[in-house]
Design a protein that fits this description.
By secondary structure, the protein is an alpha/beta fold. 39% of the residues lie in helices and 17% in strands. Strands 3-2-1-4-5-6-11 form a seven-stranded parallel β-sheet, with helices on both faces. Strands 7-10 form a two-stranded parallel sheet. It has a two-stranded parallel sheet with strand order 8-13. The chain is globular and about 60 Å long.
């Protein structure tokens, strides 16, 4: 029985954990989990994952190339998901966000990005934040395709510590692949949500407030499209294996927009915890609308979304409203 070896950076984080958990269910897969636990924790769910016989775990600081040299060399598919994410982090420690979102990409490319022997795919996790400046500054049409130009409207705004780092990563992976000859795919994730996504995101933040009967809401008239984690994992795997996605930037998200105010109302209805919303302005630099065009994803991979927002919120709230600790 031939094995496929997957290496996942940021495996103790949100998307990384769920991707690793799904892949580990197949005994033909060897899953290598890498994380520095700066944000993703060693909770019981992650401990159960890395205890599986076909899973290896490395606690490694990817900003240190000497530590990366401890990793196995023979890897079929590399999912580079490690980043210091979370809106509060963008404002509270922007330098660390930049550091942890740029250096690992260089070092992983230097270690794995060779033509022979080489990877079957280097999957780089990007974000819809890369084009937020274009949407807000130039009123670019929403929903937005992968062809949107990228710009940074204000280098002084710490919110751009993350988005600018991901623009840097997209440029880096494409130029490195062109010069070194390894196959890659860039995935731009759009507001993926679900159980164990940590805090510092709109859905778990509001869930935590519900437990305290606090109904503060930020950017209530803004719209977002939310994709449940199970669908995000399936789209990620399809992008990694489909020949037609080599060298492509792929939007992964849902085309269905919802106002943040309506999202909060849905969460209150599902939880049975209701109150009068206290509305606040959006954080500076936040775009008023975000939704992807996913025609390329559907055409190249035959991907279809399977979990409606209400059902996904029901599963997510079942996780968060029964927890005392809202961090991963």
């Amino acid at each position: 029985m031939s094995m496929t070896t997957y290496l996942i950076t940021g495996a103790a984080g949100f998307i990384g954990y769920h991707l690793a958990e799904y892949l580990s269910e197949d005994p033909r897969h060897q899953v290598i989990c890498v994380d520095n636990h700066l944000r993703g924790g060693l909770d019981m769910m992650y401990r159960r994952l890395i205890a599986k016989s076909n899973v290896e775990h490395y606690s490694i600081d990817l900003t240190n190339p000497d530590e990366i040299s401890r990793l196995p060399k023979n890897v079929d598919i590399l999912f580079h998901l490690a980043a210091l994410n979370g809106t509060q982090n963008f404002y509270e420690r922007p330098y660390e966000v930049i550091r942890h979102c740029t250096l690992p990409t260089f070092y992983l490319i230097d270690y794995y990005g060779k033509k022979e022997p080489g990877l079957k795919r280097f999957v780089y996790a990007s974000t819809s934040e890369t084009y937020a400046g274009t949407v807000s500054s130039f009123q670019w049409p929403v929903p937005t395709s992968e062809e949107v130009p990228l710009c940074i409207p204000d280098v002084k705004n710490p919110r751009w510590s993350y988005g600018a780092s991901k623009i840097h990563g997209e440029v880096t992976i494409q130029q490195a692949a062109a010069s070194k000859g390894f196959p890659f795919t860039v995935i731009r994730y759009h507001n993926v949500y679900g159980p164990r996504m940590g805090d510092k995101h709109v859905i778990p933040d509001f869930a935590e407030r519900l437990t305290r009967r606090k109904f503060d809401l930020y950017g209530s008239e803004d719209t977002r499209s939310f994709l449940y984690i199970d669908d995000a994992v399936q789209a990620t795997i399809l992008c990694a294996h489909e020949t037609m996605t080599k060298g492509e930037i792929m939007n992964v998200g849902s085309p269905h927009e919802i106002r943040i105010k309506d999202l909060a109302a849905m969460m209150m209805d599902i939880s049975g915890i209701r109150g009068e919303l206290v509305l606040h302005a959006s954080p500076e630099g936040s775009v008023s609308r975000r939704a992807p065009v996913i025609n390329k994803l559907q055409e190249l991979t035959n991907y279809q979304e399977t979990v409606p927002l209400e059902e996904g919120l029901r599963r997510t709230l079942a996780y968060y409203l029964n927890r005392d600790d809202y961090s991963i």
